[in-house]
Amino acid sequence: MPSELVEPTQSEAKRIDNARCLILACGNTLRSDDGVGPRLAEWAAERFREDPRVRVIARQQYTPDLAEDVAAADSVLFVDASVKSPAGRVRLTPVSSRSSAADQSSHELSPNQLLGLTRSLYGSIKSHAMLLTVGVGSTELGESFSQLVESAFPRARGVLEKAVLRFIAG
Amino acid sequence: MSQTITIDPVTRLEGHGKITIQLSAQGEVEAAHFHVTQVRGFERFSEGRPFYEMPSLMARICGICPVSHLIASAKACEAIMSVRIPHTAAQLRRMLNLAQMVQSHALSFFYLASPDLLLGMEADPNVRNILGVAAAKPELGRAGVGLRRFGQTIIELLGDKRVHPGWVVPGGVTEPLSPAKRDKILAMIPEAYANVALALGAYKQIAGAFKEEIEVFASFPTNYLSLINEDESIEFTDGTLRLVDSTGSIIEDGITAARFSEAMGEAVEPYSYTKFAYYKPLGYPAGSYRVGPLARLNIVKAMGTPRAEAELAEFKQLAPGLVESSFHYHHARLVEMLYGIEKIEEILADPRILGKHVRATAGVNRLEGAGQAEAPRGTLHHHYKVDDNGKITWANLVIATGQNNNAMNLGVLQAARHYVKNGKFTEGILNRVEAVVRTFDPCLSCSSHAAGQMPLEISLVSADGEVVDRVVRD
To answer: Which residue of A75, A132, B247, B441 pairs with B108 in a disulfide if CB–CB is 3.0 to 4.6 A?
Structure first.
């Protein structure tokens, strides 16, 4: 079972070591479109259920603790909502391990800061590191998605699947 | 004249706060206040809810120490039910609370405090953060991540969730511990020992470089309060409260949760939404006291586990009497982490921990109940009243940060007076003023029971009321 929508445990260490691709989603499922990352993570967990090379984690935010998990994977696909993109726009962009910390918080890191932290702590450099974003239309309180984001899911799932298959192929 | 200050944008506090430093006409510090600007709410909106919902509701106050709220709340509910929980359940809760303490202290020490300690108070704010620590001292960064994982994994194994586990309920816990989970926890112990030993060694090497900070970081005599066992050893989950004065003499001992509200009051100051707890017979502010790791180690006579015992003896050598400087909260946290690991190992060595009877049941047998526990930041007290149907009619929470509030304010003033001279200051000086608050590891969300963004604002105000400088962290 590759899905880990909660914290990994020690017993999973061996399988974690074997994971070639880590899907690391974040977002708040109680804030409408901000929950797009966890929603895509749920789909990915089902899609890659039988594939031990893929591991899925969904959190409300990226925290320093995740550096261990990132270090254990060959490649990482971050999945998040974007307030900078137009609602429903799906983008896949490379992530570098920039360690600059001008906007760094002890509670929340950006994907490139998390990669930078992973590199500093574990000397780990990823084969692939990409960020999949979906532009949000609403972040109001609620558990449903705006129409534009709901409509974007098929495309987002397709982009996610294609990226993961490419990552695990090396 | 206004100056521009670049300050590290990291919000290295668990909450939303503001510091104001008031200058005299001569540019000397006249007053300094630490404001908590969030609004309370949890006590009010719990009214009308069934009492048995309270643990899971109150845990939502905080994402760092929800376990403490779960436990204090469950104990208050058990007072309403008039039940005594099974031994196994009590030990499982104790282990859960210790696991939370370890992960919370690791967050405080490695993520929030270590940038100042390892990189220096004057270090470039752009690197004075966890990323800077990771680059400069990766072995310590890994130790911090490892200790966080240790605590969080135990919480998840026991409660199924890393944050806000629903496993602690009125009457005990919902599920016994399986041998497989016990063995998983035991397998993590050696690495946890190694990580905390690394941190203790590193801290002792660098602490000597902070003699000036030790002297002025809330370093003054106060009273102290914490839970303690009958054998005078440290306790986080049960026991009763002991209040001592600045010499260590007992002011009052054996304060049960039921007696807490008779002994302790809460004062209000106009500049903060967090209340100021005090011991009623001494009045406010004379009856103010400190809680948390420093208070606990000052009060107890023993840790009850061999490695932590040796560290306690060393800790008590830091000062001739009680250890007064709040800078030493950092050291105390490390000692407590070591204790937590040892105690968890000890609890798991007892085969009774696998017992199946882990919950007592009852309805409403009293219309009022109170519970208390030691949160990582200090004593936590929950007090509820219910109607005949068990619906909450009144609730009051006394949080560690409120109990440290007076000392934090005095500490900010002490540091500001020492460092800010003639109205002149640097980023490093303001960082030190902020670092005083950081030593207490306050949880401002807990203290005001509010949620949301958590910026910190520091204002320097001249004698005529003009804001000379202001730094805001979003």
So the answer is: B441
